[in-house]
Structure formats: C-alpha cells, structure tokens
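Exercise: predict the structure of this protein bound to magnesium ion.
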Amino acid sequence: MSNQPTNLAKIELPGIRNVLAVASGKGGVGKSTVSANLAMALALQGAKVGLMDADIYGPSIPLMFGVNEPIDQAITALPLDRHGIKLMSMGFLVPPSKAVIWRGPMIHRALTQFLTQIPWGDLDYLVIDLPPGTGDAQLTLTQTVPLTAAIVVTTPQEVSLIDARKGLQMFEEVRVPVLGIIENMSFFQGDDGKRYEPFGSGGGQRLATQAGVPFLGQIPIHQQVAQSGDAGLPIVASDPESQSSKAFQELAGRVRKDLASFQNPIKLPTLDL
Ligand SMILES: Nc1ncnc2c1ncn2[C@@H]1O[C@H](COP(=O)(O)OP(=O)(O)OP(=O)(O)O)[C@@H](O)[C@H]1O
Ligand SMILES: [Mg+2]
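Solution:
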C-alpha cells in the first residue's frame, strides 16, 4: 500500500470549532495521557470539550475516565459524559480483553461513524487521541477528519524523537498545521530535591528547532500521572496543584491561544505606498 496521500473526502463536523489531533510516531510516549489531561484542562478552563479515542486496537481512554466495561447502549447514550467531557472510544463497545482484529477499511468506517453518528453537539474542542505510528491508518485518518491542527508528543529519547519526526512529516504531507511538540516524561524531582533526566535532556526542544515548529513545553514524570490515569480521573482534576498538572494547564492555555489565532489570523496593516 502506498503512503502517499490520496484525495479522501473530508467529513464535515458542524458545531465543532476545533479538531485537534494528539499524535506521535512511537507507542507508549504518553499520547493518551496528554490527550486526557489536555481535554480535562480545557474543560476546567471553561471550554466545551470532546475526546475521541481513535486507537481502535488499544483504547486507553475508557480506563483513564473510569469506564471499565462496555456500556449498555440501550441505557447509556453515547458520547459518554465524564467530568463534563464528551467521550467516545471503541472500548465502550467492545471489552478491552477482546482485541479488535480489523482491517484498515473497517477501522476507517468505525472512526467515520464515531465522528458522524455520535451526537457531539456544540464543542469548542474535539481532542483526538491517535493510535501510535504513521502508517496508512493514521494517514487515512488525518486526511478524512477535518483537523484544525495537531500536536506531537515525544519523550527526550532518541528512539522516540526519530518517530516523532515521522509524525511531523505525516502532518506536513497532509497539510495539517502542527501547533508544536510537547515533551513528556522529561524529568523527575528526586527526594533529594535534585532534577533527574533519565531519558536525556533537551531532545524535544532540539527536534522542534530542527523541524521549525514551536516547542510547547515539558511534562515531568510523576507517579501520580500514571496512578490518576489508572484510577479514572486525570491528574489535572485529581491533583491540580501538582507540577505535572500545572504543565498540562499551561499546555491547554497555549493550545487555546494558538487555535484562537488560527480563527482570527493577525491582519497585517495595509501599507499606503
Ligand atoms: N508524565 C508521566 N509520568 C508518569 N507516567 C506517565 C507519564 N506519561 C505517561 N505515563 C504512563 O506511561 C504509560 C504510557 O502512557 P500512554 O498510555 O499515555 O501512552 P500512549 O502514547 O498513549 O501509548 P500507546 O502508544 O500504547 O497508545 C501509561 O502507563 C501512563 O500512565
Ligand atoms: Mg494511547
């Protein structure tokens, strides 16, 4: 199969003002954690937010929002509402233990249905947690969904940076603007008060500089980030004063500002020559 973009028809999403993809080339770098906390932080800042889990094979959003088994659609309407966020995930339909073995076109159809048949209503932001990788599934998705912009998650490690670069190239190919790179698992503060950087230092910033995209900041490693994710309430809501929560809140503020400038591009003064 070719990795070249084709002319797929874009889905129309009236009522959703901004669609933001959270992506990375590499798995396990924290896309779902960033998506969940960014969505939560945007909601806490007063926005109407939806979060769509586009990871059909390994959905994480149900666990991160405390939905531990498929829902009964006869009783509970989709999208689910948790902590004021509208949520949709394959994990609401299929038990997490049953890996979904689907081919590309079926995944495409499922995601299209998530977008078009779920009554999202009026949203300021729809955050989309993309599956890892930059293969056909991701490419199709980025071409079908009317993405306003994307952010790319990386860790400071070289293996992660290489794949993040591929993620950036993918968005360039499909002409989706990248708001910038967010570096996750950047450092932790030891009991001795010192800063430790187990995955290296400055990788996200370097990649951003090389790629000519903004660097959106660093999210520290914190046990509670993982624990809160597993417990069904993202850390920005469970412990808003933590260093990690503050980093996610800052990221949300930056995303809002940058997306607003897309809607109202700065008008250059006309020169009277
Ligand atoms: N800043 C952090 N501090 C501590 N743990 C973290 C942090 N970010 C993510 N984690 C943990 O790392 C693991 C991987 O994170 P996550 O599931 O968000 O990654 P992902 O990129 O979505 O993975 P996948 O590619 O499988 O979808 C999870 O257990 C999560 O709780
Ligand atoms: Mg994930």
